[in-house]
Task: structure prediction
Amino acid sequence: MKLDKRIKRGIQIAILSFTIVSVGLLLLTIDKRTIELLENFNPELFLFIVFVWFAYRFADGFGISVIARLLGHKISPIKGFEVVLVGLFLSAVTPFQISGIPMQIYMLHEEGMDVGKATAVIMARGVLYYLVVVPLLPFIFAILGISSNFVVKLLFGYLMVTGSIAIVLYILFVRRPDLLIRLVPSKWSKVRAFVFTELKNLQEGIRVLLDAKDVFRTVLAVLSYLVSILLLASIAPLTLYGMGFPPQPLKSAAALILMYSSLLYTPTPGGVGIAETVAAALFSTVCPTYAIGIFVILIRVFTFYIGAILGGIVFFRKSLTLEALKEKG
Result:
């Protein structure tokens, strides 16, 4: 299989960047106590954290399958899980983590959904995530101390900006699709027709979701993302406990939810460099300086890079299958 140059370059940048950032963190924080810390690691607990990660992401994929059912399409939780993983991989190798979305839409389209309704599923996934997170934010800011913590203030501002952009994009895609169609040159009549049709399908998909009479599945979709977020939040205190430190569950869990929710779209592939810097600042109150480098690396591996690696395996397997089908055709 010939690897796309952009994907190949993205993988190289992601690996190199994470290595440089990790080494830099360790050099800045390591001392003799760090070596002693390595001797007290709890490997069994770390295996359990990996299991928690699988449950956290599977709940995410299950949510996608439930949303698809609300639109009348049968998507298995396993397929939803694969959609999540591929999104993680492409997020890790591209700036702003946006290239994963078209591929996720394509994967749902392969399962029989039109592009517009597949887009509606991915949009609804993001809306449900923040529908659960937003009510938690006042408690998170109270626990972390927004008035005295500069990093928390910065992330709060970033959330406000990205939230405003999301609302504008929603209005453009759903309420004013005519503005988007005008961006397509009139001579590209087929493209304009396709964009118009899929925006109509997107509108219909959003309408069906908003008017859903299936209360059970609607509640199930919300609960799946609530469970997913709680499982994500548990990774921070579990990691602290595995390193031999007090888990401080409220503070560490709040920091991880805020970090993850604020850094979904960053200019570096996978948010590398930015995420580690923010994590080091956020978790400095729950983890000693001599251990913060190792802790941040573990958190990033547990919450992001495991998924990116598995997503890469799914992505390349799918690419090989498509190539084989083209050769047969």
